[in-house]
Amino acid sequence: MNCTSLLKPVGVFALCLASSGLCAQADEYNIVQNGGFEEVEKEPTTFDQISRATGWNNVTIGLSEVFSKGATAKTVGIPDNFYGTMEPAEGVRYAGFFAWKDDQRWNFDGDPEDPFKPGWNAYSEYPWAELPITLKEGRTYEVRFRVALAGNSDRAVAGIGVFLSPLKLEYHNRSFLQERPQVVEETILEERGKWVEVKGSFVADGDERYLVIGTFPTAIFETKRIIEGVDNQYAYYFLDDVFLIETNTVEGN
Predict the structure, then answer these.
(1) Correct CATH for 2-250 of 3.40.50.720, 2.60.120.260, 3.90.550.10, 3.10.350.10
(2) Nearest Cα to 133, choosing from 201, 34, 200, 208?
């Protein structure tokens, strides 16, 4: 599996698969604050509450979740919740987002040969975090995070990645973002219930301040149906252990 840097060509970087914890090295400084979603303003009580995780929010009106072992509602509990059963990659909490959802609806008054009508249609959710510093021009950064396809998902996707933005993005829709990510996963991540690490490097322009995670069809997009029979038409991924570090190299060196 390959993870490619797209903002400035710096080669192809390997995707590492991890089923166990990956700890930061002692000399690493994680620029992302609360990358493990461990700090919350309040325990989550229902869907759409990623904003309760300190420092996190949503780019669009497709709202993401935070899950917790301390949640009173089973819908957002750990290990069992609405989307499946999953232990955190580390700590006692993680987030989750729709990487793809085809929100079609039955059209009872329409053509019987075409029984669906568009709803929101296909969309992705995009959790974001503001960085405490602006990235440095010409410096190389490594970003990594872990996702796990939720057990109740009937679809899986390629195209999950990271966009580092100079501006705070706010869109009043549920559409796919048209921004081009610096790092993207080209392989369909289809194994349910297993943490997989997505990892890649890029050279900063020097004005990036916001980290956005989601599906980026501007780079690559592919879906796969992974069940037979009834299809719930979504690919939901749990998210944990988000890291962004400077690798102490300068472009051209």
Answers:
(1) 2.60.120.260
(2) 208
